Every structure is written in structure tokens, then in C-alpha cells.
């Protein structure tokens, strides 16, 4: 058994943390066998529920058309801008449910060059540089806001009961809602490395490696919403953080591992970003993995069983001692939980999470209700909304 586990870890380039898994099997293995049919039936019910609620192709196409329109009207009014409008998040990963938000990044490294030119010959602290970058992002958002409010081509698509809202939080965004119900958050990224796009690309491939990943993410997010574990405004997890929890669990917390460490398996293929300095210049979201995954033992667990394993894994996880490294597919010693963004651990605008957990284990032990919810956006903390 130990030899097989070691082989599977090496094949998928993960470092497993299997003590909770073996404890779970010892405590509940007999129950899982006795109610095997019921667990399968529950898993099929979860799958059916998710299939009914997930984002349809027609909605995906409407979101992509909105991105194209945004690009066109912004370009029309700002012909000297060198930028792209990049959809990110669940809408492009395969994890979205119907009517989930659309996250869009205006990727404009050209603006960073303007900021850096202003810094030439001056003694600028890192904090002052961050403030200048933030001011530039805000200036671009204000220009885009004027475009949205005045361009006759896009105005008819916007629900003006909601208007164009400027949300000044940790990540500044414009929030619009279209007349056909798409809620769109528009951010500005000046870095050459667009972490949210590379994260989305990685998660999309995790979803394609094993269908249980997307389904378990949906179940965990719904459970998180019902228990207030998913509650970023009050210091809880955002949706992206929950996806990272699921990713780590399926890599390191069950046996055999269900998800591989894709970044390390294909590190020489220039396919996935390895850091904010080492990444492919172009991504093709329709491209398959460069080569087949290595063969390893099959994990036959149902989604319902995996959900219980997930709860057990994190119920006694010492969040004050360890942090999760998705990039390395392992846990490391740390005083606080720190789920590193798999691509950009040094990027201040990257969606990463650092929380203290005084009550997380209690919540996990007490709560077992599961409903399936839509994909939330990354939490922005307390919001200051300018209507």
C-alpha cells in the first residue's frame, strides 16, 4: 500500500498529506461500504443538479460577445491604447453556473511604462510606486466609465437602473449589469503577467482532468455559502479560495491523488505559468495538454464521498501551523493559512488569500448541509461604491 501511494505521488508530482485520509477510512470505511448505493445515488443527484444549473453555451457566448464589444468601444475612444479585454474566472474555467458574474481584466502594460517613466530620476519608495500604479488604474477606469456612459453602441446593452458603479476596494473595479442579466466586473491590470488569466487557464485544465473537480467545487461553494465559510466581506473565504482548497485536497488529501501538479508535470513545455517571471506569452484556452498524463492508480471515490473526506481533511487541519502551496502541491509550515496563488505569489493584485481561522474547524465539524450555488467573484473586502 505504501509503495503504491509513493508511486502515485511521484507520478503526479504531489506530496500527499494522507494522515486524515487514513483516519477517515478507519472510522467510516464500513459505513461507506454499507451505504455504497446511497452514496452513488447522492452523487448522481449532485451531478444532475449541477448540470441543470451550470452555465450554458449560449450564456458563455453572450459574455464573450460583451468582451468583444467592450474592446471595440474602448478602442474607438482611445485609439492609442495598447490593451486587451480578457475574460477570467469561472466564466472561462468551466466552473460557472447560470447567471454567474463575468470577471474582465483590461490588460494594459503600456500604462505601467507611463508610470515608470514618471519615476525616472526620482527616489520613489515601493509604497509610493504602488500608489502611483493604483492611481493609474483608477484613471483608466474613470475613462472607461465615461465611454460606457456616452458611447451609443454599448449604452443600449447596459441596465441603467443599476448604472455603472465604481467600486474602490483592494481591487478597483467598474461594475455593470447588462439588460440580459450579465453582471460584469471590470478591473485594470498593468503588470505584464496577468495572473487571473493564467490561474483561469490552470483551473480549466484541472476541470478537464477529472469531472469530479468541478462538481466538488460547486458543492463546496454552496456549502460554504450556507455556513458563512464563504463570506469574504467578513473575513471568510471567497470562491477562488474555496477552489484552491478543493484543488489541494484532490492533489494531496486523498489516495490515489485525483489531480496532478500540472505546472510541474509540464514545466518544460511552456504551457502553464511557473511564476510571474516564467510564463507563456500566449494562451490557447482550447488547447489540450501537451502530452497525456502519466498513468497511475485510479481513485474510484464518488463526489459525495469526496465531500465528506474534504470536510474531514480540513476539520482538523492545523491552519496556524501549515499553509497550502498549490504551486508545489504540498503543505508547508506557516503561522497562518496562506493559500498561494499558483502563479503569482509576489503579485499584489493576484487573487490570493491569507486568513486566521479561530472557528473554521468548529464550522466544518458542525455543518454538513450541501446545496449547489453559483460561482462568486473574488472577494474585494469592504466596498466603497460610487454610483
UniProtKB/TrEMBL annotation:
InterPro entries: MTPAP-like_central (IPR054708), NT_sf (IPR043519), PAP_assoc (IPR002058). Residues 43-206 form the Poly(A) RNA polymerase mitochondrial-like central palm domain. It comes from the Eukaryota. It holds the Pfam family MTPAP-like_central. Residues 303-341 form the PAP-associated domain. Its cofactor is Mn(2+); Mg(2+). Keywords: Magnesium, Metal-binding, Transferase. One of its GO terms (molecular function) is metal ion binding. GO terms for biological process: RNA 3'-end processing. The keyword DNA-binding does not apply. This is Protein CBG19180.
